[in-house]
Amino acid sequence: MKLICREVWWYEPPKPGQTEADLRWGFLEIYSDRSTKWVDERPTAEQMKARKSCRNFPKADD
After folding, report:
1. Which end of the chain is more exposed for a tag (fewer CB within 10 A), N or C?
2. What is the residue extent of each domain of the chain?
3. Using CA atoms, how far apart are residues 55 and 61, in angstroms rounded to an integer?
4. What pLDDT score does 62 carry?
5. Do residues 4 and 32 touch, judged by C-beta distance below 8 A?
């Protein structure tokens, strides 16, 4: 089993009105056998800024 991807990811998707700071962040690891693993380790500010996924937040209800 080989690690093929490690991405900054949220533990749960944001709810309307939540910001990045409100969420629990970590890493989603994806392996060659298609298994995944959640790593509960806060990403650095640089890693958060460079992330490719988990960028869209729902808008608060008006």
Report:
1. C
2. 3-50
3. 19
4. 44
5. yes
Q: Tokens 């729902």 — which residue?
A: 58
Residue % of the chain over a pLDDT of 90: 63
Q: Report whether 24 contacts 12 (CB < 8 A).
A: yes
Longest dimension (CA), the chain: 47
Among 3, 6, 12, 5, which residue's Cα sits nearest to residue 43? 6
53, 27 contact by CB (below 8 A): no
In tens, the pLDDT along 27-46 reads 999 999 999 999 999 999 99
Take residue 54 and report the two structure tokens written for it.
Answer: 């988990």
Per the confidence metrics, is the pTM higher than 0.90?
no
Residue 17 CA to residue 8 CA, distance in Å, equals 21
Burial call 26-59: b when 16+ CB within 10 Å, e when fewer: bbbbeeeeeeeeeeeeebeeeeeeebeebeebee
